[in-house]
Amino acid sequence: MKKILTLAIVSFLFLACASKNVDPMQERIKKYIVFDGLDKSIVKSFNYRINSNSLLEIELILLSDSDKKISYELSWLDEDNFKIQTPAYSDKKDHVKLEKNKELIIQRVSTNKDAVSFKIILRKG
């Protein structure tokens, strides 16, 4: 009986300490996207890369089960996490319509090779 109880406790501890698989996309979303009044579930896909011209490129695909008006702001960041200045209109879109069950694809490429990171703010309305 002692052996069975010991085995059960050891098995429980082993399972409790086992690493849990984390979805890589959810980790990227958590690190790079801020949601203001919107649910994270609208993100269908999210990727980024350094392209062949050594510029940072992002692709964000949004999908909703209802019509929504959203706005987004994209900030490119340098290696010290400082915002890189870009033309005011280039990375800001107000009141984009996210239609029910239709994908909205946001693709942007930085215009500066100093951009090594970014932050996206998605807002309702």
Task: Report on the architecture of this protein.
The protein is of the alpha+beta class and 125 residues long. Helix content is 20%, strand content 40%. It is built from 2 helices and 7 strands, in the order H-H-E-E-E-E-E-E-E. It has helices spanning 2-17, 24-32, and strands spanning 33-36, 43-50, 56-62, 68-77, 92-98, 104-109, 117-124. The chain has a 4-stranded mixed sheet. It has a 3-stranded antiparallel sheet with strand order 2-3-6, covered by helices on one side. The longest helix has 16 residues, at 2-17.
Summarize the structure.
Helix content is 20%, strand content 40%. The protein contains two helices and seven strands; from the N terminus they run ααβββββββ.
Please give the order of strands in the largest beta sheet: 1-7-4-5
Quantity of strands, as a count: 7
| Bulk shape | extended
Helical content band: 10-25%
Quaternary class: single chain
Taken in chain order, the helices and strands follow as: HHEEEEEEE
Number of helices: 2
What percentage of amino acids are in beta strands? 35-45%
The mean pLDDT is 86
| Largest sheet features | 4 strands, mixed
Radius of gyration: 21 Å
Structural class: alpha+beta
Quote the distance from N terminus to C terminus.
63 Å
Stretches with pLDDT under 50, minimum 5 residues: none
